Structures are given as structure tokens and as C-alpha cells.
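Repro case for the chain-ordering regression, as requested:
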Amino acid sequence: MLASPLALLACGPAEAPIATRVYECGSDPTIAFENTKDAHTCGRDENGVPDPNLVKADGSSLEPSFPAEACETLVSNKSFPDEGKDKEGKDKLDTRVQEALIRCKNKGAVKLVVDPSNTSNNAFVTGHLNVLDAVLWVDAGVTLYASRDPYNYQNTGNCGVLGINDASACLDYITVGSSSNTSLAPGIIGDGTIDGQGGEPLIGRDYSWWQMSGALRDVDGSIGNPTLINVGSTTNRFWMYRITLHNSPKFHVKVSSAPMRPAGDAVCTRHGDGFVIWGVTILTPSRWFNSQGIPMSPQFSRNSDGIDPGSNDDSFCGVIACNTISTGDDHIAIKGGHSVSDLIIAHNHFGTGHGMSIGSETFGDAIDANGDKIPSVSNIEVYDLTIDADSRWVGNRVSGADFNGIRIKTDTSRGGNVTDIRYHDICMRDMVNSILISTAYNPLFAGTYLPDFGDISFKDIHGVTCMAETQTIVSINGFSVNNPTGPVSLDNVIMDNIGPQATFATFSDIDLGPGNVNFTPSGLGVKVTNNIVTETSPPPRKCVFPTLPVPEGKSEGWVW
Amino acid sequence: MAKLRHATLILLLVPLLGSLSAFSGCASKLKPREGTCERVTSSAVLNCDVDAADAEIDPWADVPPLVGYVCQGSVRPDDSAVMIEDVPNGRICTDRGPIGDTGQRKYCCTDYDTPCAYNPTADCPETPNSSSSRYGFECRGQMRPEMFNQTIYCDQATRTDTLVNYCCNEKRLTWGCRPSNGCPRDLTAWNCDPGVLPRSQELTVSKSRADTYYMTCATPKQNTDTDQTLNYCCYTPSIIPDGGTCTQHTSVPGCATGRFGFACVGPESPSEDFPPMVCAEAGMPGTSMEGYPATLYCCDFVN
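-- result from build under test --
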């Protein structure tokens, strides 16, 4: 009689022991980018030598620097975002910013600064901004607020309308673009802050952008709230440096870059030629409570992805380095609805969020000029990353999804080819899902875009425990026997708090070793090849977690 | 009683009644399923291979291939599923159609149990302009029926508590609506065959989770001079509040093309269930599209 594989779907071998817990509590305040940015040590070894993957042609670090001077400097004339209303109660917008950006096209940066004669004047409020062939520079101490008036972002007519599932309803807050003939790389830089005010009530309404999004949660609907920063198609060499982003109404940064694929012959000769995002801090929500006293939380700030390459168009040859991200959706989501390839994601620190993710869109496969298949997502290297869920005990309501580690997710409504993905030198703490490879991210969605996950490697990965009460989960799934996932290699992958009940796999080809792996995926259609050599295995990666930024105000603690 | 040859299925026959009651709120409505199923070994009779030329089945795969059955009567090879600790446990079969006028039907089935169960009481509307019948499965967890049986195609699913409900058939069928144009910019245009309403899942690939499945449409315009198709203007609302009773009604008497008709069984106005709607006119007694007594409204989409 044929044994039912159902038991294998439900859990791994019953006799396997639960892995040893090694408690790794506490954090180191000295290694967060916020504390080292002026020393320029991120992306370098202890001797100051730059990461060889992140260097310019002359061998110097790829870390950007601020311009020597600005094209124009604007001085703040208000101290609070709601200061000054017109007779209809709408924001009095600071039109100087967009006007200066137009004047500085192809010339340089527009720098927003604190009023030196009255340092309480440190705010700017604008509606939709277009950064075309220009640089927006928000100086230290300044906050650039996005207007809370949907009228300023109206696109289809549905912007700010409660109860409509219209992903195109609003314009972006900031749209970035470049002309093909420009020599100036467009950017968003500075030690100041851009605040999307996603948790604050909209002008003339009693609900916020996030409450609009939350109203669509049960139907998994997509709200058309403004993206905080959207880098448009064919943008050349976009850069972000040291800016802080708070409270985006929806995604924080959508990034695309030229050269475009499928050109067939596009080659990434030096990472960063496409785009560089370096030293950015994303903290959403940035306050424990909004101005009405409503508690904020990662779960409340739905769809607030941190950085999404490929969300708008192809994304190629980019670097995402030395960033700190805590938010209410994916920390980074590589959106394979277009072709995304040749990215380095290194030296980053994550707090709350839905994960270092690929997907859910992975349907951007293309055919090049030679008839060869171009995957939707390929040649992605993620390393020197910490993901820390320790903040779970110190905030408002959150869900288990707010503490994901590494995710590749798609389903049949949006699946495609994802391959040559390399994760190494990664530490995670108190993750709910440490590794989650899912081909039915939302099983409700139907379609004929079948997931096709190829080469994926994990090396020197260590999941540690401080306060988690439940075992961390590793889940590796293919779509079917005809569309299996793999090969997936696990080499020196240690989860301190895992047991057979927390290890799932289906339709996958998995290689273990030569470094130790302290769990064994098993399930329907799973082939495991064990090449572990315990005697020569390196020790688990040593983990040190930085102290991460936390929301402002009084904390009543997050409850999970 | 069904006579099933497979040992696993025979073992599952005992709890059949329990299974039926588990999947049905009113098991007494079920007709007894009668007949026999025979396993088919000849590919000349029924070939259940899955696109053999494209298959990536490696020698290591421990998943048994699909197997064929021929059934006489109303019985299916997969209609004896059970629930084990609230998890469905059954096989997944594709109905490959009748064998001439013999009263027999062909099926391609998984040769093992899955966390899905054939649902004999599923409400699966027939696909317009198609003779292929559709049937339902209930599954637990993140796996769709297609992951186990690659000869099946299932529509957008719905969730009921911990179970996901699928309507499936042998191949993806044309629903009868096509994306179109000609609507105000905040509404989505559709051209549909008579008797068919638009579904969001026909909107091809989502760019960002916009493919929810509920749409609300205005009274359509009929193309009387061409092909009798109807042009709809629709939007996707958020979920109706708890207790909401209003549903769309695309043929409220006197509700002009482009205006939105609703039928409310309860006392509320459609503007309470569908916030962009303004319903200035009083309701009138009538019947919902599902045939229930209701108050009918004609409203305008305002934002």
C-alpha cells in the first residue's frame, strides 16, 4: 500500500532532535550605520580596505559623497508640517522645491536647509515632486513632509477614496527620472528626513493612507497610495545616500535602472553602474502613536516595502549597501515582474519587516536576441546582513509576518524563472520564518505563470535566539514535480532554535554541506543529497547585531 | 456503492459519510453516488502523462505519476476523501470527459492522498459556452490542486476559515469577458458575452496584487448592432462590511447605462456597503440577481 505523503507535508522526521538553543541577546550600538557613517567604515574591512565588490574603477570605495556645493539652497520657513493652511484647510505647499528642481535640471542639487536664524524652522511640505536630471538634497535637521492632501496626487480619480482597489489611483510623492543625454545622475541624498505621513489622517478625511490600505487587507487588495520615491524607467545611475525615510503611504523606494533588458547584450561590468543606494535609513512607523493617539505598528503600515528593485521596470547592475531598514512589509523586495539581475545587497541591517524578499512578481522572463531565456530574477548576491526581530517585545500590534528572514515568494498568477541567487554571511535573530521559499505565496490566486526556482545557495547562515518562544521555520517548496525548486544548497547553515516540526519542503532538490546543517528538509518530491563533512565544517557564523533605530515617543510595547 | 480498486481508497470508504457531512452544510441534499471505477493501465484508453516532452521529472522524484480511471455511473475515483484533524485527505482527479455514449467517464488522478478533498457540494458555476463541467476541491494550507495534479486547472479560490475552496476543470476555459475600453478613467472596461459578468482574475497578471476577484459593475451597454455582447464599466471595491447585504444588480429597472444597480436584502443603503456610491433615489421592491426579495437601488459612482 502506498503511504500517504501527507505526513511528510506536515512535518519532518519525527525522530530528529530539536537543535540546541544558543542565546544571543544584546546588541552593539557601535556598528549601526547611523553611528559609523562619518567614519566611512561600512563596506570596508578592519583595515579600511573596500569590499572588492563595491569599488569604483580606481579601486576606491563605491560609497558616494555629498556634492561640494548645491545648485540652489532653500531655507525652511516653517517648523511644523501642519503650519499654515489655506482657507479650505489644505496644506500651503512649498512650491519653491519643485521650481528649484526644474531650474537645477542638469545643473546639480537642490539643498533644503534649516533656517540658521531660527533653527525651529526645519520643515518643508510639498505635493508631488518630479526630480528629473537633478538631485534633491535634504540637509541634516530638515524634514521634507509629503502633503496629506490626496488632491495633490490625483491620478485616476480614486486617490484618497476609501474602499476602492485601484493600484494606479495616486501619483508618486517623488518621481525620479533621467534623460538619455544627461551627465548628471539623479539622486535623493542628505542627512535629513523625508516623511510620507502614512499614518496621519488625510486632509478633509478621518482616515489615513494606511487605514485605506488596511481596509483592503481582507481581499488582499492593492491600494493606490503614493509611492514615496519611484525611480522611473530608463533612469541612469540613480543614487541615494544617507537619507532617512519615514512613514511611506505605500512602498518607500521603487528603483529601476538602465541599461534595459532584454537588450540581449547588456553586461554589468561594475556593480553600481545601474544604481547605488547607500547608507539609507528606513524606519516605519517612526512614531509609536500618530497625532490622534492611534497606535502605530509595522502591521498597521501595510504595503510599506523598503526598497523594491524591478517594481517599476527593469533593474540592473545595482548596489544596495549599508542601509538600515525596519518597516511593515518587505525590507527589500526584488520584483521580478520585469527583468532584475546583477545586484549586490551587502552590509545591511534589518529590523521588523517581511523579509529580504524576491517576489511576489517573478513573471518577467524574457527572450534575448539570440533566443535564450532571460530569467525574471538572476545573479543576485546578498551578504553581510543582519535581520533582528528582537524589537518584537517593544512596540504595538504586529504579526508573525513582521519577523521574516529570507523569502522567495510567488504563485501561479505571477510566477516565473528565478535563478542564481546567493545568500551568504547572514545572521538572523528570533525569526518566525528564517528561510521561506514559497511557490504558492497566495494559494487563492489562479493563473498559468508557473513558478520556476533554480539555483539558490545559502552559505554561512546563522539563526540565533534571544527571546523567541517558538521555533524558527525553514520552508523550501517547489511548485510541482514538473516545476521543482533547485538545486538549493545549504552549507554551514545553523538555526539554533529549530526542530523537525519547523522544517518543511516539497518538490525540491536540496544539497547539504560541506559545512554543517542542523536540520534536514524532507517531504513530497524532495531529494536531499548530504555531503556534510562534520570534521572540517567551520563553526557557525558569529553574530553581532547593531542597535537599530526605534520609533519616537512613549512605547507601550509591541504585542505579538 | 462505489467499487474502487485502489487499496488506499478502499480504506477510505468507511468514513465516507463523515466525509460528506464534513464538506457539506446539508448532506441530505446529496444524491447517493453510484457506480464503479476501474483503474486503466493502457495509455491507448487514457493517457495521463503530463506533457512528457517538457516534464522535468527526475529519477529521484518519489512522487508517483498520475494514474487513469474509467468510471461508470456518478462515482468519481476521488469522492471518498476524509478529514483528519481538520485537514482534508484525498486524491485529486481531473475529469477527462465521457467515453462516447457508454455512460463512462475518464479520470486522471494522483496515486496518493493530498491535503485536498473533492467537494461534492461545491458551488462551481458552469463556464459559459463550454460543455466542460467544473467541480470543487477543498484544500488546507498553501498548496493548490495543480501542484499535485498537473492536468487540472483551478480558478481563483475563496477561503472559508482554514480551508481554501477551488473550482477546477481539465483546462483553463475562456470565461466570456475581455478587457476593453471606453469607460471613465477610474473604472475598468469589459466586453462580455451575454449572461457573463466580469471577474478581476481575467485582468491578466497583476502588477501588484490588484487581482482580487470581486468586481462591481454598472448597468451595461448592449452592442445591439454588432454581436449582442455587453460593455461593462466596473471597479473593485474593498470588502463589504460585516452585516452588509447589498450586492450588485446589473439590470435594475430604470437604472440607465453607466449607473450602478444594487439589491439590498437588509435595511441599509448601498452607499454604506460601497462607499463611493451615492444613492439619491429611494429604493423600490424587487428581486436580487440571485432571486431573493430585496430593495433595489440605482446609484452613482462619485469620488
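Ordering looks correct now. Residues 1-15 of chain A have pLDDT under 50 and may be disordered.
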